[in-house]
TrEMBL record:
Ranges where the record places region Disordered: 49-74, 595-648, 699-805
The species this protein was found in: Mytilus galloprovincialis (Mediterranean mussel)
Stored InterPro entries: GK/Ca_channel_bsu, Guanylate_kin-like_dom, Leu-rich_rpt, LRR_dom_sf, P-loop_NTPase
A single GO molecular function term of this UniProt record: GMP kinase activity
Biased composition (Polar residues): 609-643
Domain of life: Eukaryota
GO terms for cellular component: cytosol
Protein name in the entry: Guanylate kinase-like domain-containing protein
């Protein structure tokens, strides 16, 4: 009869079978069918009408719902441990089609906790696909021999002594035999459809009180289980991982065994989850090369060394790692340390990884340059705040006119120190060398207080704490730093300060109120850079490698941060580099050189003005006001106008710094520290007239620093030519503009306060960007006496009122 049922009769709607089950009856569409417990087959009961609704069984329903009928409490089920029909019937769930599709049958039964010893009756229920019978006293599974459709078997918590010692149901896929008295794994070749095997806590049942010696010690017999994807053999006495070669295992649980190392997993290339908790493992070696691994649990082991992480570092899919209760937890900053090394983790030690932690880890162990610089800056500002306040009147002469500084930046061995010193030698009337402090020892040819101030680490640290530094940076285990006093010393002389430093130093400097011009001195040829380093004979191979790698970083930084450097000069040939730098500076200062002298090389060049060769005379470039910074300019004869100068962000940053500096200056109350402030000159070099700042106009910088190209043969290096516009730092000679002023003075009584259009370099160009004819520059009287502020009006004036005097 059942064979002829159509879907509707069977309660199948939309392909879903939804009968109403009540005890041994099934109600479908108002008809009641009787379940034949012997065969699982339903037959129609004409006399009964469905009255009550019972819950339809769900395939994944938990065991706890096996018995929920209170009315049947009185009945003694399976007395004497012999499984009976009543017990089975009550545990039946999941009515569905038989495997051949011809009948409606119950597919699942659950008979837990009946102290069953004899389950022979199960042999009659051939349609069962899933049997759950934990917490019994079963010793023999042979009645399952005939259950050829059995897929899932849970016989955990029984008294089985043999592993699957019944002739195999054809398709047995999932087996849980944990908590049995099985001492040894036997050959499971007959169960070659096995996908999941759980053998936890073997031999525990009869040894609840005392730890059994008979626990499973060896993994074996699985060689032919070619479909095994999950294996759990936790809480046994296994001391070696073996016998799993080439199995498709994805989940492996060997927790709480006696493992000392992770081995023989190389061929388990589908492994995704491994649980090794509660062993004696010290090293994570053996976990590498599992590309699909997502989750590793090694809680409660002996992992102590952070370097062990290297074995799981390459696991790109790894998301969860548990290292709780390992000695490694004692390491300082353990969590950030791990998160830095394993940046893909979403869970560590059972705790979700927060984004903030990842950022903190990166900032702690490999901070971006900007973070290094910000920290450095913060540190020095804080230490400065802790000191009595002091007015740096030479370097902070006015909030509107920044103190002129030139920073040569580049990798070690780029030759920037030599260039800086040479520049100061030649243009001593304009530039002074800002001497950094260092903890490194002087090289043979270096002199104390000339190349660096050489100090001990203790002294360096002391000076940091005394708030002396503007910036510091550790390079190759030596510390370098520029002290405020070093800059102030130069400023007091009325000179612009030239310093050289690594990129990190520049980043810090960019956080300060200084607004230097930055020239990247870059050896573009690796070979010549390496040769220069090697020729010095003082660097180890590792140091040279480090330096050469950093030179790539400089190039990248220049590419990625357009406008960060004002100019790049190739220093492969140091003579040529100096010529370019020199040229840049003369443009910058508005100093004219005769073409003859320019061609004659760096050593011979003489500064002239108004076509007169006279050492020490010069024309002055007109200082620009901040407003003029974003004016366009032409760069080189052959190039189309390129935007340069400050980017929008830089502009905004400068505005912020101006405003901060303005606030600082206006709120300054000196009397308390008069003795400190008065030991330094209160003002910068006094003469205001004809002052030249380095803050020459630039344009919006939308490209990385322009490279100052070497001159071609026949090309004139003449500041009077159009080449003047070659420099990013230069503007059309503003000295020409000053010809309107009889004495070349730009002073308006307060400092620089020229009408904007008079300093706007665009005004020097015609509409097409070519230079207009300009009036000849006025000759400036030759300098006399010692070089210094009184003669060289480089610095802007101090606003005494603003400074609080
Ligand atoms: N205050 C500073 N802040 C950051 N870096 C600095 C500072 N002073 C010097 N440096 C840089 O530290 C690096 C190491 O200094 P060192 O004197 O050993 O190099 P160098 O041989 O003079 O390099 P170069 O030939 O490029 O001038 C150099 O790149 C140098 O410019």
């Amino acid at each position: 009869m059942a064979d002829n049922w159509n879907d509707e009769e069977l309660g199948i709607q939309n392909g879903q079978f939804s009968p109403i089950v009540e005890g041994g009856f099934v109600h479908v569409d108002g008809e009641t069918h009787i379940l034949n417990y012997d065969t699982n087959v339903l037959s129609l009961d004409q006399d009964r009408q469905a009255t009550e609704v019972a819950t339809a069984a769900d395939e994944d329903q938990p065991q706890s719902s096996y018995y929920d009928s209170e009315e049947e409490e009185d009945v003694e089920l399976s007395p004497d441990g012999i499984l009976d029909e009543e017990t089975i019937g009550r545990g039946m769930t999941n009515l569905g089609r038989s495997a051949d599709g011809s009948q409606q049958v119950y597919l699942h039964t659950a008979i837990p906790g009946f102290s069953l010893k004899d389950i022979s009756i199960l042999a009659n229920y051939i349609h069962l696909q899933k049997i759950e019978m934990p917490y019994n006293e079963i010793t023999d599974l042979s009645p399952l021999n005939d259950l050829k459709y059995l897929l899932i078997l849970d016989a955990s918590h029984n008294k089985l002594t043999k592993l699957l010692d019944f002739s195999p149901p054809k398709n047995l896929q999932k087996v849980d035999l944990s908590y049995n008295d099985i001492e040894e794994m036997t050959d499971l070749t007959p169960h070659h459809y096995l996908m999941s095997l759980v053998l936890d806590h073997l031999c525990s049942f009869s040894n609840l009180v005392q730890e059994s010696d008979n626990k499973l010690k060896e993994i074996k017999g699985l060689e032919n289980c070619k479909r095994l994807t999950k294996l759990s053999i936790a809480h046994n006495k296994i001391d070696k991982i073996q016998g799993l070669d080439n199995l498709p295992i994805q989940q492996l649980d060997i927790s709480h065994n006696h493992l000392k190392k992770i081995e023989n997993l190389e061929t388990l290339d589908r492994l995704r989850t491994i649980n090794l908790c509660g062993n004696n493992i010290r090293s994570l070696k053996g976990l590498e090369d599992h590309d699909l691994m997502e989750c590793i649990d090694v809680e409660d082991n002996e992992v102590i060394d952070i370097t062990e992480i290297k074995f799981v570092k390459g696991l790109r899919m790894l998301r969860q790692l548990n290292l709780l209760r390992n000695p490694i937890q004692e390491l300082p900053d353990y969590r950030l340390c791990i998160l830095f090394r394993l940046q893909n983790l979403t869970q560590l030690d059972r705790h979700k990884v927060e984004v903030e932690e990842k950022v903190a880890a990166a900032n702690m162990f490999n901070p971006p340059l900007e973070v290094i610089a910000s920290r450095d800056h913060i540190m020095h500002v804080v230490y400065q705040f802790l000191q009595p306040s002091r007015v740096w009147d030479s370097t902070l002469p006015s909030v509107e006119t920044p103190y002129p500084m030139l920073v040569l930046v580049g990798p070690q061995g780029s030759g920037k120190k030599d260039l800086a010193m040479k520049l100061v030698d030649e243009f001593g009337d304009y530039f002074g060398y800002g001497i950094s402090h260092t903890t490194r020892r002087p090289h043979q040819e270096e002199k104390m207080g000339q190349d660096y101030h050489y100090v001990t680490l203790e002294k360096f640290e002391y000076d940091i704490k005394m708030g002396q530094f503007i910036q510091t940076y550790q390079y190759n285990s030596n510390w370098y730093g520029l002290q405020m006093e070093s800059v102030e010393c130069v400023a007091r002389e009325g000179l612009a300060c030239v310093v050289h430093m690594e990129l990190e130093g520049v980043l810090t400097l960019k956080n300060t109120y200084f607004e230097p011009r930055y020239v990247l001195i870059m050896p573009l040829s690796k070979d010549s850079h390496e040769k220069r380093l090697r020729d010095r004979g003082i660097y180890s191979d590792a140091q040279m490698d480090y330096t050469l790698k950093r030179s790539d970083m400089y190039l990248e930084y220049n590419q990625e941060h357009p406008g960060f450097f004002d100019m790049m000069i190739n220093s492969d040939d140091i003579q040529e580099a100096y010529r370019r730098l020199r040229r840049l500076v003369t443009d910058y200062l508005g100093i004219s050189l005769t073409s003859e002298q320019s061609e004659s090389g760096d050593d011979e060049e003489t500064i002239v003005e108004g076509q007169q060769t006279q050492m020490g005379t010069r024309t002055w470039s007109k200082p620009s006001l901040p407003d003029s910074l974003s004016q366009p300019y032409t760069r080189g004869k052959t190039q189309s106008p390129v935007q340069s100068g400050r980017g929008i962000l830089e502009e905004m940053s400068i505005k912020r710094r101006h405003s901060a500096a303005r606030d600082a200056v206006s709120g300054y109350i000196p009397p308390l520290f008069e003795q400190i402030t008065t030991q330094y000159p209160k003002t910068a070099p006094q003469t205001v007239e004809g002052q030249v700042g380095l803050n020459v106009s630039g344009d919006l910088r939308s490209f990385s620093a322009p490279v100052d190209k070497p001159l071609q043969t026949g090309e004139e290096e003449d500041s009077s030519s159009d080449d003047e516009s070659d420099s990013t730092l230069s503007v059309a000679s503003a000295g020409d503009m000053k010809s309107n002023s009889p004495d070349g003075s730009l002073h308006d009584g307060k400092g620089f306060n020229l009408p904007t259009d008079s300093v706007n370099p665009i005004n020097l160009m015609d509409g097409k960007g070519t230079k207009k004819d300009l009036p000849p520059p006025l000759q400036r009287p030759p300098s006399q006496g010692r070089p210094g502020s009184e003669k060289h009006n480089i610095l802007p004036p101090i606003h005494a009122v603003k400074a609080g005097y």
